[in-house]
Amino acid sequence: MSPFLQLTFALAMIIALAKLGSYLSFRLGHPAVLGELLVGVLLGPSILDFLHLSIFTDQHLQEVIQELAELGVMLLMFLAGLELHISELLKSSKVAILAGVLGVLFPLALGAGGGVLFALTPKNALFLGLTLAATSVSISAQTLIELNRLRSKIGFGLLGAAVFDDILVVLGLSVFTALAMPELGERSGFTMILIVLLRMVIFLFLSSAIGYFLFPPMALKIFSLEISQGLISFVFVTILLFGWLADVLGKMAAITGAFLAGLWFARTALKERILSGISTIAYGVFVPIFFVDVGLNANVRSLFGGDFWLFLGLFLIAVVGKVLGVALGALLSGDYSPLEALELGVGMMSRGEVGLIVASVGISEGFLTAASFSAIVGVVVATTLLTPPLLRYLVQREPGRARVFAEGE
Fold it and tell me: What CATH number corresponds to the domain at position 358?
């Protein structure tokens, strides 16, 4: 069987089983995304090791699926941005700053302390804390979309805090790399930090200027042309370019660029058409691949070997540090009740592609051991699986929400 046919068969199974899993999960009263994540664990090396069956001989198959999954998370974050309004997001700037900053500092400090207890060197322990400080709100955003709660105080705070979290973790990674390299002098390291900050500011300014001034007229102009699905093609290309620009120019995660593109397209008069077209592509094909791919990259069985206590310790640090930090930031803002602050903390609990990116840099540069890296991958999977049902449970406990859910919202 040719590599292309192997890919087509693998994608057919992944998408079909993901949709079956999401349907069963929804019928059982859980977020649909949880079913797709569990399908990934089932197909992954934890149980079936689907991609390593004898029928698959293409060595690049898993890599191709991972890249398609990256498209899925970019489209998901674009749709999250498209559901919001800039003015509404700015109203949550106070809680976004407080929750974003404390949500990084708490797991960073606890992770570094835990690394020392596990006999890591101070440098490696600090990097371990930085890895645990990362977050990924794509899964939480999807859960809130399913619950019709993305355009709520929790949704605005979650996405705003995630932007600050991403900036701080990327900046922290740049600072650590600059200062940890012995061949760089103090001035060189400081200069590198300033350059990273400047690139972030330039990217945010440039992307905002393009989105504010060019998106509305360009969307209307392209929609008026006699091009088959020209508007959707234009939007899709823009998502890819904004993701590329975020990484290359801003040294930020590509999903940040996709999210910003969604925010600015939300201002256009064609928002509903864009939402309909991109949703079809995203939820029909790419987003299910993304959620299943999380499980395909994890081997849950390996966590119950000699590294179990390391995994358990890092898992507790990751959960407690992030939830406490974010919830405290929400409470300090004065705009959130204790339950809402807890919801925000749980929503930020999931790790994902950002954490994996930081961990990959750590193991390639020698800042993380192989055991630490495996434990971090386990933390990513565990927090990703745990976040959707916990978030739904907390939302159901909000006053007046239990009756709505019982009626089948």
Answer: 1.20.1530.20
53 inside domain:
no
**pLDDT one-digit tens code per residue, 215-255:** 999 999 999 998 999 999 999 999 999 999 988 898 777 88
**Total domains in the fold of the chain:** 1
Q: What is the 3-state secondary structure (H, E, C) of the chain?
A: CCHHHHHHHHHHHHHHHHHHHHHHHHHCCCCHHHHHHHHHHHHCCCCCCHHHCCCCCCCCHHHHHHHHHHHHHHHHHHHHHHCCCHHHHHCCHHHHHHHHHHHHHHHHHHHHHHHHHCCCCHHHHHHHHHHHHCCCCHHHHHHHHHCCCCCCHHHHHHHHHHHHHHHHHHHHHHHHHHHHCCCCCHHHHHHHHHHHHHHHHHHHHHHHHHHHHCHHHHHHHHHHCCCCCHHHHHHHHHHHHHHHHHHHCCCCCHHHHHHHHHHHHCCCCCHHHHHHHHHHHHHHHHHHHHHHHHHHCCCHHHHHCCCHHHHHHHHHHHHHHHHHHHHHHHHHHCCCCHHHHHHHHHHCCCCCHHHHHHHHHHHHHCCCCHHHHHHHHHHHHHHHHHHHHHHHHHHHCCCCHHHHHHCCC
Question: 95-127: per-residue pLDDT in tens?
Answer: 889 998 999 999 999 999 998 988 888 888 999
What pLDDT, in 10s, does the model give residues 280-290?
A: 999 999 999 98
Residue 365: which domain range?
A: 75-290+305-406
> Would you say residue 278 lies in a domain?
yes
